[in-house]
């Protein structure tokens, strides 16, 4: 009896192994179609990611100014119609110094604009990204340009919103497109009829539509060697608030001096023809006044 059990035990050991192998092969055959499908889907996602990266890279090399940007100064966002004095403000949305300057001089800028003494142009730069790493300055600048696409009021309201929610320098929260979009959902001071349209704003932010324009602005800023923000120019003359001891009263005085100087300059139309009768120099109300303003670009 003992001898007859040996072969049975041996057989019993072999059969499960054979059965296990067969089961394993059967399982693979059953899963093979699903595995092929998974690989195909993964390949589609990879290709889509590559195409998306290629499109975004292409946009970063294309300089696409926001709506309302004049061709004479394609890197600037203008506020107010043409007047003899242009104040160009360079701002970095991630810089605490830029935020402090903007908030400290907001009422002075409003006074200059409302009185018609000056035109304000904003130049978005991204120096903080280079200093601290990250891309929050660049992404915020692109988002600001996307807001400008929908109008001056939307631009100003969104800039104020970013200043209000500016993260600490160590936290690059502006590098999140979702965060930038969330901040645009409800802008203080804007009626519902003028709120940012998400259907236009969100794709513009996600696709980095004005990324190339932001890069060009930063490149020009570096080439001009204007130093650290905040910095501004009054009819092309560079003023550093920190180095030059700028105050709101001094800024108004500098604008008035620039306006007086602009009034003494002959307009291009007056000097274009030597045979034309002598005319007085151009005044602030002359249509040709913008030509006395150097390009901020």
UniProtKB/TrEMBL annotation:
Biased composition (Polar residues): 10-22
Residue ranges constituting the Thioredoxin-like fold domain according to the UniProt record: 80-241
Entry-linked Pfam families: Thioredoxin_4 (PF13462)
SUPFAM superfamilies: Thioredoxin-like
The keyword Transmembrane helix is annotated on this UniProt entry: yes
Record's compositionally biased regions (Low complexity): 266-297
The protein's name in its UniProt record: Thioredoxin domain-containing protein
